[in-house]
Model the fold of this input.
Amino acid sequence: MYRFQDDYSEGAHPRILDALQRYNMIQEEGYGLDRYSQEAAQRIREMTGDPEGDVHFMPGGTQVNLVTIDASLRPHEACVAANTGHIAVHETGAIEATGHKVISVDTGDGKLSPDLIEPVLKEHHFEHMVKPRLVYISNPTELGTVYSLRELQNLHEYCQSQNLLLYADGARLGAALTVKDSDVTLKDMYSLTDAFSIGGTKNGALLGEALVIRNREIKKEFRYLIKQKGALLAKGRILGIQFSEFFGDNLYFDLARHANTLAQRLAGELRNLGCSFWIDSPTNQIFPVMPEGVVERLSEQFRFHTWVKVDEQHTAIRLVTSWATKEEDIQNFIRSYRTAAGC
Amino acid sequence: MYRFQDDYSEGAHPRILDALQRYNMIQEEGYGLDRYSQEAAQRIREMTGDPEGDVHFMPGGTQVNLVTIDASLRPHEACVAANTGHIAVHETGAIEATGHKVISVDTGDGKLSPDLIEPVLKEHHFEHMVKPRLVYISNPTELGTVYSLRELQNLHEYCQSQNLLLYADGARLGAALTVKDSDVTLKDMYSLTDAFSIGGTKNGALLGEALVIRNREIKKEFRYLIKQKGALLAKGRILGIQFSEFFGDNLYFDLARHANTLAQRLAGELRNLGCSFWIDSPTNQIFPVMPEGVVERLSEQFRFHTWVKVDEQHTAIRLVTSWATKEEDIQNFIRSYRTAAGC
Amino acid sequence: MYRFQDDYSEGAHPRILDALQRYNMIQEEGYGLDRYSQEAAQRIREMTGDPEGDVHFMPGGTQVNLVTIDASLRPHEACVAANTGHIAVHETGAIEATGHKVISVDTGDGKLSPDLIEPVLKEHHFEHMVKPRLVYISNPTELGTVYSLRELQNLHEYCQSQNLLLYADGARLGAALTVKDSDVTLKDMYSLTDAFSIGGTKNGALLGEALVIRNREIKKEFRYLIKQKGALLAKGRILGIQFSEFFGDNLYFDLARHANTLAQRLAGELRNLGCSFWIDSPTNQIFPVMPEGVVERLSEQFRFHTWVKVDEQHTAIRLVTSWATKEEDIQNFIRSYRTAAGC
Amino acid sequence: MYRFQDDYSEGAHPRILDALQRYNMIQEEGYGLDRYSQEAAQRIREMTGDPEGDVHFMPGGTQVNLVTIDASLRPHEACVAANTGHIAVHETGAIEATGHKVISVDTGDGKLSPDLIEPVLKEHHFEHMVKPRLVYISNPTELGTVYSLRELQNLHEYCQSQNLLLYADGARLGAALTVKDSDVTLKDMYSLTDAFSIGGTKNGALLGEALVIRNREIKKEFRYLIKQKGALLAKGRILGIQFSEFFGDNLYFDLARHANTLAQRLAGELRNLGCSFWIDSPTNQIFPVMPEGVVERLSEQFRFHTWVKVDEQHTAIRLVTSWATKEEDIQNFIRSYRTAAGC
Done:
């Protein structure tokens, strides 16, 4: 049964495995001090345009979030996040477990903006309440939507003016940067945030996320925090090798673009067949709305998440494509949909 | 420059990489619910002899320690550990970061025993002090020493009688179980502890540790804790595949035995050449004592840790072998030693 | 300028000060093991009807909340609270600082009920989300409303059926139990919750809150937790003496009833003068709605909190009476109101 | 049975109770913003000589320690303390509960010095270990010893040179500053530390400790941390009133000097009678060594702590005097000692 359930159902892109194989028996320093990690960091620094940026690699996204946020805040300081934000709902209280409240904000599309943050600052005005200090965004969001350059600039300026830190969770950052007509680059992500992550796991790596830090205060003794939270791999090389491969040429972006393209093709075909969408997403997660009977029949042939019941008879489902999805997988789905929907 | 610095200087054993390659494009459920993780868990359960044991896989050893300990303790409860224990010195306060004190005990050889724990319990007798509740041992210890079956039984009985939990960090467990004349098995580790780990990273895996839990209270909702601490990999399959390969036959033990054998051969030859040892270790970490000049000359050809200055003119160094060490690496070292020491 | 700002603007009721004076030079054991604390605990146990109940005294309400909640939860477990609940908004993330998320629920009147908790349980269904485990209510609520016996019974039954702990913050418990036609007693509070507090600070004590625990799991080694969080006073006697005085006769309830009576008299007179109320509260906090001009003029003579703007021209203010409020203070306010409102 | 057990066996000094009585019915702002707290802070600032110093009042000493230390450290940073230091042994892991390791150092007399701290810094040299950042001293120490001005200056200079924070727990600070030939003043405590506390509970207050902060980084938004840890009393006035009374004239020092004087008189008489001492303490805690039989007989008439067995037949006991001890209490003890010891 084919899975459109997520973008981590397979292992790694062949080039990633090849690279791991290629350097396998070369001895290297442990804990991310190996030459591959240094090379990968260097490549990322070049793309972000600042030789002073710090780059760290960690095995998973929840770790990157909790290490970075805990490194950034004093005990009474809190995060502001969309109520759909990963840290707000789907990390089992990882941030609270480091002692910090996540203030969640209702958004339509998973995106924060100054006008949504402003009331939070107004409300949290004295020492009987936590102090909002870090704005957490995900790009793309958990709903597949992306920030435009203008939106990021506005957030950046607002955060600067309010002494707020801006952190972007890029678990699927490739998808955000390679949408059609994207005007946001790695360089923008760097210059407009205090720190952001570049997800590997969901874009063809075996595992691994890069964290890029611009803010000097957050940089300080950061490896201590990585170690303390258990995110410093003894064989850090396996993260370095993968990210070095990703950014030695355009592999990282090519894989993300492939996933986006196939998702949008699938969306286009469904739209042509009369499907509406729960939300308009340009990335590799799409949310078509279908009659329940159709959903049921499709679920006998494909795995996917049902997302939300939109009315008595209709449900939005989530379909996710990845670097590993093939054109024929799309066509199979469409074929099944036509049969199920009778169109 | 050849490294005897640690047992994680290379990538993975070829069979591990092959297995990852073999199943790479098969789609699987995420977060450790894949078939490989289930198969690996099943194999480990069989070796520990209890179909009710819980097995979880996590990327790193510090994570396994902090997740397990935090899952086991109420806020005022503390760990007891040898002062050389990994959690006591080399995990950047990972346990304290979850809120729990580590009470460290001076031992000669890195091993805890009832007579060393008894005074801790006596001292911590009322609510103005933390309550010792979990005994942390590592097997082998950070000094390469191992527990005999009798010693483990004594600890187990003592802990049971004092309502203490016993947790064994097995980051190098293979080395402990395959020393010459070993009388401890995986089954013993299971039946004599409340939980213990089986390290993969230092025994030929790319990364990964298995945690095996016998105690019912610790088992409860354990996956929540794994997720909260960021130790639940989206592609849990890559841990499952490796451990399934390890325990499909005797690979795990063969690799550990190989490392032990070469270390002991190296130790034997050094001993024959007049070298004394800082501590007597039967595993893959050995601690020869050498004149400083010799250490200096060897360090131009090999990487290793200098461990401790034993007197004005002598230093103990640590030499670590691994699954990847070859007979010729040993011989090269001996040759260099003879030159350096003039013998 | 007279304060209707809160119920802790004065020191302590004279009988409280007298009692402290009376026993001042008698030597006693420290840390709450003195005879007064034991006597006070005994008196409270008698009123709650269970000789097995545990009673502890702590200096402040935030402490009682954080100690109790941290003692009750495993790391991945969370609280459910009204979004107006003290722990949710006005304790500077005290609960999160112990590692636990507070899931806040929108209520009209500050009160939780099974139908408001049910969706939270439904939503938090797997290990990627925190596990709701403790229901936090305040009685009276931060809006001055109270739970009826039936409402508490429903909550109790629901929590039991869902394996949820029920904890009641009684910072102003006296006010809840002495409202007109109250059908809830200390005995009910005890038998229907796992733990609840009896606030002293806001009812005429110098400082101090009693915590009463029925649940055996929470009771365990509880003094360790009190000490760890800094809530174990060396001179615990000063809490014991006060609560012993409170519950030696009906002082505790008399003071609360006095505050309620004056607040309701004030509310009645304002209502007669045409004032409407933002919320209907039977306790010592009332929320009259007034034209902004009137609020402004009154604020030149009295201190109180403006609560919320209800429309372009009207604001709800909060007026709080206490054990120390006198009939003439009420009449002064009414007189000023009539002048300000021109009625 | 008279208690030489501690210095908090009675209530408060009569002047303290009188002051609480005097201002009892005056309405004041809550949460430490009352006029008495401001006045007390102002008096302390004047004595420390810096109008910029921050002064906060909290109910208990463990709170002051944990709030201050948590406010001062990033997550990976640790405290260094004597192994007899209160935070190291007798606060139930309060500091670890905020996430920070306490590195304890063996001292003879409870006092830290640069040469004792130096090896800790040397050992903790990389990111696999916590980073020592704050030096915790108590003055007087838990063994009754005190720091000389020269010793404090050395510590201060050393900490400055090593980028370490210096925090002094002054739970019995009065006793330290009023020993015979003392050369340390409040002004010195202020200028030589980053923060220090002035204990009230053990010097005649009902309860309460003052925290004085010189370091700007620690000062920042400090009230948020006080509130978060539950240390912000609603009726902060009761702390302000007491400390204002303490420092309106020399009451604070007079009470401490009284306790010291009586303890030293007791020590002198015991010494004259042939008693030796476990440690030489100039403050209100003394540690005479007595034959076990004598200890036993005395314990039928007096309460005190047996401290440590010094040899087969002798035990050191701890005798504590306070503001409330009277000359006749001393004489009674001496009389009983003579009888018990037969001299």
In short: The first helix of chain A runs from residue 14 to 22. The two ends of chain A are 23 Å apart (CA to CA). The domain at 2-6+252-341 of chain A is CATH 3.90.1150.10 (Aspartate Aminotransferase, domain 1). The first strand of chain A starts at residue 2 and ends at 3.
